[in-house]
Amino acid sequence: MQFGRSYEEFEVGATYKHWPGKTVTEYDDHLFCLLTMNHHPLHLDTHYAQETTQFGQNVVVGNYVYSILLGMSVPDISGKAIANLEIESLRHVAPTFHGDTLYGETTVLDKWESTSKDDRGVVHVETIGYNQDGKVVCIFRRKVMVPKENYLEARGGEQPGRPTPVPDRSWPGPATAG
């Protein structure tokens, strides 16, 4: 399975549909809120949300929605990234609720070679996230520095840094056909 792309593999206009989706549970949302110290009752207090908000239920915290979608995009977009350079824009356009399943897709808006190092380039992408009904809930644009093929080749190829298993007394080495 491919994990990320080199600069040469990105095409302007290409859209990558991220798989699988992620169903957001109440536990996921509450844990994220507590870990990040976001104690807003809209996210944590069911009674408050039912009685005092237009939604009538808890809303999943937006940073968790963004984080899920960003994570979904890694195998297709930034799995080989040298750096995430910029989050240009982030818009939450509709609420996400407990029990919703999020899906995402990313479109390549532009790409250009680095002006300072010839072994990398920048890819400008837009990711949209939508729920099980196809309702778009989040849109963000970012710029990612990605390696060119020569960068990867100089550092070990497709899976740089991956060690080779070393035979010892508990494992004598690869089995040979016989």
UniProtKB/TrEMBL annotation:
<dbReference type="InterPro" id="IPR029069">
    <property type="entry name" value="HotDog_dom_sf"/>
</dbReference>
<dbReference type="Pfam" id="PF19315">
    <property type="entry name" value="MC_hydratase"/>
</dbReference>
<protein>
    <submittedName>
        <fullName>MaoC family dehydratase</fullName>
    </submittedName>
</protein>
<dbReference type="InterPro" id="IPR048274">
    <property type="entry name" value="MC_hydratase"/>
</dbReference>
<dbReference type="InterPro" id="IPR052342">
    <property type="entry name" value="MCH/BMMD"/>
</dbReference>
<feature type="region of interest" description="Disordered">
    <location>
        <begin position="153"/>
        <end position="178"/>
    </location>
</feature>
